[in-house]
Amino acid sequence: MTFETLPLTARTLKATESRLKAIYDAAGLGLSGDSLALAAGMMPTEYRRLCDLDPLAALAAQKGKADAEAEMAGHLRTAARGGDAKAALAILQNRHDWVAKQQVQVDVRQQISVLAALEQAQGRVIEGQAQDVLPSPLNFAAQVMQHGEKHPSPAQS
């Protein structure tokens, strides 16, 4: 068995103008990391090594991303100023941390009165508490004196 050697030629890594332009363009599309390297025509390991050796490569990626973000922000701002409510809302929410108020109003008094009514009903029905339906003798006497009429007393009826 014979082993043949494969010809290996190492590519030279230089931050040429065309390579920096390719990195800039790929970063402008929103790519990063390995995807950026492949789109720029390099292997991911080559791109990382180039960034370590020459800070201009990393700067080209940052500049491409920043320029693309500025361009999109400009389009969004123009649309918002032109009356596009969705664009204005997107700017407020994503750049100015604005959140629409979501209020829930609960009337506690109504809940308490409903609970009290349920407790009273439970006391009357389930526990079998009886309540006077007829007026008390003192209330009856006060009504008679007030109206000047004679009514049968509660005890007579």
Give an overview in words.
It is built from 7 helices and no strands. By secondary structure, it is mainly α. The N and C termini lie far apart (126 Å). It has a domain at 17-95. Helix 1 (17-28) runs parallel beside helix 4. It has helices spanning 17-28, 33-39, 44-53, 55-81, 85-95, 108-125, 137-147.
Write the layout of secondary structure elements.
Layout: H1 17-28, H2 33-39, H3 44-53, H4 55-81, H5 85-95, H6 108-125, H7 137-147
Helix pairs in contact: 1-2, 1-4, 2-3, 3-4, 4-5
List keywords for this structure.
157 residues; mainly alpha; 7 helices; 61% helix
Short description:
With 157 residues, this protein is mostly helical. The chain is 61% helix and 0% strand. The protein is elongated.
Indicate the percent of residues in helices. Answer: 55-70%
Report the radius of gyration as a whole number of Å: 42 Å
Unreliable stretches? none
The run of helices and strands is HHHHHHH
Number of helices: 7
Structural class: mainly alpha
